[in-house]
Amino acid sequence: MVRAPGFAIIASALLGTLVLGAPFAAAHAQINYARYTPGTIAAVMQLHDSTIRADHIRYGSHPGRIISGDDFPTMTRVLYRGDSRALSPMRVDIVRHWGLAFRKDSTIVENFHREYLFQEGKNLLWLPVQDTVASFFPRELHPGQAVTLYVVWFGAYYAGEDITWAFIVNEFSAEQEEKQ
User: Fold this and answer.
1) Among 47, 55, 150, 162, which has the highest number of CB atoms less than 10 A from its own CB?
2) For the whole model, what pTM was predicted?
3) Which residues pair with 80 in a beta bridge?
4) How far is it, in rounded angstroms, from Cα 169 to Cα 153?
């Protein structure tokens, strides 16, 4: 897989949008497990945090939507917390714009209606989960259960306070619990 070196950043003051990387891998209807590398969501966030904050200042402190062309496919172990809520409007916006930027079609957002709470280390993370994937949660997961998630990063939104991260869950593997 060929990737653009470093970050190719295109800023649009009108939309407040940044595009990072190049679109070589997209979320798949059928998951390709080989493209996911073991890691953490926190590591991907840490990798981009300072760049997002610096670009916010560099481009005049305008609120900015960051759309990533390098989706950092990550396989991470987390705890399922059991809570869900409607997908946040900001994450809907990021997923829609990712679809427009890299697929020329924003309908990918129609596959996501809820985000679920997971815990990675000490971090609590609300992550959008594809509807078809989430339909298996009630049968296979219970709160506090360890689970391996297959996530990709679509982007973020930053307006000077906290960064709203948009990772999406494409698949999961429930950890088998020991019988006592």
Assistant:
1) 150
2) 0.76
3) 118
4) 9
Look up residue 137 and give its two tokens: 């949660």
Residue 178 neighbours by CB distance under 10 Å: 5
Task: Indicate the SS3 state at residue 135.
Answer: coil
Q: Which amino acid is at 48?
A: H
* Residue-wise pLDDT tens digits, 19-55: 333 333 333 345 788 999 999 999 999 987 777 777 6
Once rounded to an integer, what is the mean pLDDT over residues 154-170? Answer: 87
Torsion of CA 46, 47, 51, 53, to 10 degrees: -10
Q: Mark 84-120 as b/e (b = at least 16 C-beta within 10 Å).
A: eeebeeebbbbbbbbbebbeeeeebbebbebbbbbeb
Q: Which ranges of 16-134 would DSSP assign to H, the alpha helix?
A: 41-58, 89-103, 131-134
Residue 117's DSSP bridge partners are 126
- Answer whether 65's CB lies under 8 Å from 97's CB: yes
Tokens read off for 110: 């129609």
Phi, psi (deg, nearest 5) at residue 56: -60, -45
Q: Left, alpha or beta for 47 (phi > 0: left; psi -120 to 50: alpha)?
A: alpha
